[in-house]
């Protein structure tokens, strides 16, 4: 339990440093996006390649990924049903709300939690790949269709194939499966860049919290609360039940449940902002789940860890 608290203190400390940097105008306005872009296009791909190339292929293809993926689909399905019955969201809003309920932040917060709490980033990296290769194209295809673009699926697949995180993850997976030795001369700078990924994304997230006002009246708060509850409470319960039903070991049950309790991924907001659909709902859900997930994960660690 002490390790969990230390991990959260480390994560929140860096987020707080980012917030203070924005508060005292060290970084202003959209300048934080430079840090986020460097992390996304350079440091995070380096980290994922470094992690996956040393991973046990058995861990990469473990039942934990199957359980967490199934839990995500079920949580998203529950939001879709609630939307049809109560919220009456349009197709784009329902899709983004369902994504908020099941698409975990396996990058910005998932990797720190995996490194400092689960003890191995290889548990989260494959889920990140599944989300980007399988879930994201489907989400983007639906959003493209709301623009009247009949080629939405092709556009989405093209975006996924050119994503640097996907490319780095696939290359790392191939190296791990084939067992190709990597020279230190090449891995030195890659490892150093990868080490910068987690601090940069946490700093950028902390900066983004400056000036944010969540849950304003008339912004569809019922949908936000439903997506938040599904993400941080229902999805972990589903993952725990599935992991137990499949006969996973205690540590695998702990890992699957913890991963399922991660907050909504920030790139869901990127999708909403890009397509100008349900931006406020997604922003508020990301904000709430980010903080609500921390005590939930601590509770999971106390009960199962």
From TrEMBL:
Pfam family name, one: Mem_trans
Biological processes annotated in GO: transmembrane transport
Domain of life: Bacteria
Keywords, alphabetical: Cell membrane, Membrane, Transmembrane, Transmembrane helix, Transport
InterPro entries per record: Mem_transp_PIN-like, Na+/solute_symporter_sf
Cellular component GO terms held in the UniProt record: plasma membrane
Bilayer topology: Multi-pass membrane protein
Residues passing through the membrane, by range: 6-27, 34-52, 58-79, 91-117, 123-143, 155-180, 192-211, 223-247, 253-273, 285-304
Main location: membrane
Record localization: Cell membrane
UniProt similarity note: Belongs to the auxin efflux carrier (TC 2.A.69) family.
Identification of the protein by name: AEC family transporter
Organism: Leucobacter triazinivorans
